[in-house]
């Protein structure tokens, strides 16, 4: 693109933004802001800091509703951001994550989360997004995975009650098992300041090699090498929508998804080799 | 069949428009409008656009809804359709919150009591509000009619509306032969609307809550009138969300209005809201403050499916029409 074209495009972008003439969906997702600003800030980290490599992107459906289910780790949800970049730039799909309610109570963070396409983890929102044909993402381990000690790295935690499986069955959409390798090493959690965390209303407050010793500098993530693998979709459309209320079926399918992801994690971790090379 | 319609809250803008549009319907023989104040006061200059303010052949009866007089009106005129619009959303400066609550809740009880005793009433249409869903970070992003909100409304207009809805549901159970339609409207928007929300956007600088950018939804007054007209003339029992398609973020509204926002930390916003209220500038109730933090969106699909019709104005188009009528708009063109 020639220089004047580029300048004109930037001007048009700024005018649209300043005049409020852009679209957000009913969840508050602002695709333009996400692509042009938020993801743009993450892309250097994605490519140069974590050197993310993806495997099996072809397993992500090109269109229509699907549920990406991934492992969660790293103390702060950096893995969610990197998976969003991977799916946006390599699969051409906007990832709509279901997040903890803590996020939506916080100023700035809650609304940035909505603008980048995410919403609260609740049945109504999950069902609505899947019905609309969105690519929805969940981390069923939640805080148990995100805040686990470094010694437990790459050991999948419990998967809750399998609400995500029930949502997938109700919508009849495939589940894409996803393994993220590399996030475990960014903030190795060696200890937990439990009392202080409770006082601040946080699920945990980690002690890492750099935090809290280096203050804000301790928030710098270690430059681990990342790999994100997308597995073969697990179909749910052969079940009746009513099957979502069958706890046995939901538990079995949840266990199956969990085993597949654990296996993918083990393979991908071997393939990656050393964490920081 | 000749029909007689009673419209409450007829002295305010939307109520007046609904009454006058029903008065032009050849199938309706009489439209009786009631309110606590006569329709001419206060005369809003914007009310006269496309004759919205004139009641046409509506017969006006001054009735305090809190008194049993309404029963006499219903009995004397053989009313068959009741359109209950008389829900006040903000306490007036002179009379305060207690009177507003009496007007909303006791007024509705009197009206429903009269309807229950009436042998002629066949259809009841009640105006409610999407505020009954509250506004909370723990609730789904988009409400449909069956969602039970996490933090239901605890005070003010929204609580009144929730109580009114409770009485309406009770009435519908006791009189299954009467068609009851309950309409949960998003904020009205349009050239003639004068509400806390439109007054907010008319200010030169708009205080916002720092770190929050709520999703807002509007329904254009023309569409609101059309929905009420259809509900008053056809049978559509049930509860419906009424909102223009899509949402606008508050930041988008501010930019479209060509205004500047003044982000304040939420305690300061609350204090400023109280000050503005006592100074008689904009009336910001606690639930509106919550709306300004967490926002709210509803799904109007059920209404569209039932009526086979969609509001002509999206949320954004309704807001733009309001801005245009007030001579507001973006700085850069």
Automatic annotation (TrEMBL), chain A:
The keyword Transferase applies. SUPFAM superfamilies: Glycerol-3-phosphate (1)-acyltransferase (SSF69593). Residues 66-183 form the Phospholipid/glycerol acyltransferase domain. CDD domains: LPLAT_MGAT-like. It holds the Pfam family Acyltransferase. Keywords: Acyltransferase, Transferase. GO terms for cellular component: membrane. GO terms for molecular function: acyltransferase activity. InterPro entries: P_lipid/glycerol_AcTrfase_prd, Plipid/glycerol_acylTrfase. SMART domains: PlsC. PANTHER family: MONOACYLGLYCEROL_DIACYLGLYCEROL O-ACYLTRANSFERASE (PTHR22753:SF14), TRANSMEMBRANE PROTEIN 68 (PTHR22753). This is 1-acyl-sn-glycerol-3-phosphate acyltransferase. It comes from Nonomuraea endophytica.
From TrEMBL, chain B:
InterPro entries: Epimerase_deHydtase, Lipid_A_modif_metabolic_enz, NAD(P)-bd_dom_sf. One of its GO terms (molecular function) is UDP-glucose 4-epimerase activity. Transmembrane segments: none annotated. The keyword Ubl conjugation does not apply. It is an enzyme of class 5 (isomerase). The keyword Isomerase applies. It comes from the Bacteria. Its EC number is 5.1.3.2. Keywords: Isomerase. Residues 5-243 form the NAD-dependent epimerase/dehydratase domain. This is UDP-glucose 4-epimerase. It comes from Nonomuraea endophytica.
